[in-house]
Amino acid sequence: SDGDSIIVSPGEYDESIDFNGKAIVLTSRYILDNDSLLIGLTIIDAQQNGSVATFNNSESNSSVLQGFTLQNGNGNEEDPDDNGSFYTYGGGIYCEESEPTIKDCIIQNNVANQGGGGGIFCYNASPVFYGCTISENTTDDVGGGLYTRQTSNPQFYNCTFFNNTAEFGGGCYLRNESTPIMDNVLFQENLANNSGGGISLKDNSDLEGNNIRLIGNEAEGLGGGLYVNNADPDFSFLLLANNLASSGGGTYIRNNSSVVFSNVTIANNTAGLYGDGIYLRDNSDLV
């Protein structure tokens, strides 16, 4: 019932979960013992049977998932646009028209092929993440760690995106008229087979980023660390280092984008063709 807390002992739970709109706290014993080892010892394993956790019943920030490892999800077959086309989204977490709170979770080894969001998918959703690690998630489409669309405004605080893989947006792929927030977030060793090794922003996804570190990410095409296409993000205290791409090793900016960098370090990035640090084109501005 709304207002309840469910506290789960360490172990591996072979299942997928759905909050069904309930304003409850579902947590491991990490909430009581404050021992981070309990996060890795309390596992929800979807066994390749849909998304590990689903929020699609108007959940609010009062719906809390805390202190778990979420693994081996392969996404939900969904048609969030209601246009008759079903694709696979959100291997670890599927979030549609909801705003849950996710704390101190490890989201790892999930897949969402032919759709996107290996780790997390958001559609018209604005979840808040605190202290989470999103790692080793994959998709053959967009958003290895995270895929957001349709006015989704997720918030990430003190999180890490590590070693995620996608065709576009290895760490994350954010699009469609949104203003996501990231504060103290690390993107490291993520891979895009096309563009946006660390972060990919498209179509007015105007990210507000503070203390973002993009280190050692790779895109076989454009934008090893950061790829911006028709978006106006604002970054303060940004580190772009040791990223690799065909063009725009550190960042690739295009299509009428207006980007602001404040207190930025751009170092040791490599491009095979153009723009080791920064590449700009098509009426884009960088301040």
Task: Provide key terms for this protein.
10-stranded parallel β-sheet, single chain, 16-stranded parallel β-sheet, mainly beta, 287 residues
Q: What does this molecule look like?
A:
With about 290 residues, the chain is mainly β. Helices cover about 5% and strands about 50% of the residues. The chain contains two helices and 34 strands. It has helices at about 30-35, 35-40, and strands at about 5-10, 10-15, 15-20, 25-30, 40-45, 55, 65, 70, 75-80, 85-90, 95, 100-105, 105-110, 115, 120-125, 130, 135, 145-150, 155-160, 165-170, 170-175, 180-190, 190-195, 200, 210-215, 220, 225-230, 235-240, 245, 250-255, 260-265, 270-275, 280, 285. The strands form four sheets. The protein has a 16-stranded parallel β-sheet that branches. The longest helix is centred in the N-terminal third of the chain and has 5 residues, at about 35-40. The protein starts with a strand and ends with a strand.
Mean pLDDT: 97
Q: Could you tell me the strand content as a percent range?
A: over 45%
Describe the biggest sheet? 16 strands, parallel
Q: Segments where pLDDT lies below 50 for 5+ residues?
A: none
The helical percent reads under 10%
Beta strands, count: 34
Radius of gyration: 18 Å
User: What is the count of helical runs?
Assistant: 2
Oligomer: single chain
